From TrEMBL:
InterPro entries, A to Z: Bact_polysacc_biosynth/exp (IPR050445), GNVR (IPR032807), LPS_length_determ_N (IPR003856)
Species this protein is from: Paenibacillus catalpae
Protein name: Capsular polysaccharide biosynthesis protein
A UniProt-annotated Pfam family: GNVR
Transmembrane segments: 12-35, 170-191
Length: 248
């Protein structure tokens, strides 16, 4: 299908494409606003202190590299059932099992001495409570587990009066719905045109058969054809002979 033909088909079916896009985009917007539950995220930051740091001296690069490697170890410790069991015991108001906490808590680091403990929940206050609880227990347990006291909480999750949910992102959802509905509607129109084997123009006949079109019968509506047949019948009756019987 040539580009000119594709554009012609899309122009003819523009009404269908517009209606389809409006319907899908509106449905996505309504679903995002009224049916998707908001999810909030809270996070705390933990910093790994460099014990090799002295007054007026720079920290050795090897020490920094070792600390970055320790961050990876601490990330694994956070996701252990043993540590989460201590969190559940120390903070029973969380009302979750260690397995549930492991699935809810996420630990990130960016190749530096800081790692963040992130928690997502339908309630921001509960997410902040869990993030702070896990961070507190981690800072308490690291000296016992690693025999080294080099971690401290840099920033705790604070209570927010009007937190913004991380999901759903309504503008993003609507934009995705618009793009997908545009692609789907245009694909439907072009697919139907491709599967339609009806001849709709003289150009198609000339291109397919390689023959010139001699004449074209115009499309006529039924109410235009029916009066014509009546006129022809009436004209034929005018020329008919009339016979009169003569009584002898």
């Amino acid at each position: 299908m040539e580009l000119k033909q594709v554009l012609r088909v899309l122009k003819l079916k523009a009404w269908f494409i517009i209606v389809f896009i409006l319907f899908v985009t509106s449905a996505v917007g309504v679903f995002s606003v009224f049916y998707m539950k908001p999810v909030y995220e809270a996070s705390t930051k933990i910093v790994l202190k460099s014990n090799g740091e002295t007054d007026g001296k720079l920290v050795d690069y090897d020490v920094l590299l070792a600390n970055v490697m320790l961050i990876e170890t601490y990330r694994d410790i956070v996701k252990t059932p043993g540590l989460m069991e201590k969190v559940v015991t120390a903070y029973p108001e969380i009302n979750m099992t260690p397995e549930q906490l492991i699935l809810k808590v996420k630990v990130n680091s960016s190749n530096n001495q800081i790692m963040s403990v992130q928690v997502k929940d339908a309630s921001y206050n509960k997410a902040a409570q869990i993030a702070n609880a896990v961070s507190d227990i981690l800072v308490q347990e690291i000296p016992k587990i690693m025999n080294i006291n080099n971690v401290s909480i840099l920033d705790q999750a604070a209570n927010m009066p009007n937190p913004k949910p991380v999901t759903p992102n309504i503008p993003i959802n609507i934009a995705i719905g618009f793009i997908l509905s545009s692609l789907i509607s245009m694909s439907i129109v072009l697919l139907r045109e491709y599967l339609d084997d009806k001849v709709r123009s003289e150009e198609v006949i000339e291109k397919t058969l390689g023959l010139s079109v001699l004449t074209v019968i115009p499309k006529m509506k039924k109410n235009e054809v029916f009066p014509l047949s009546l006129r022809v019948t009436s004209d034929e009756r005018v020329g008919e002979r009339t016979y009169v019987a003569i009584n002898q």
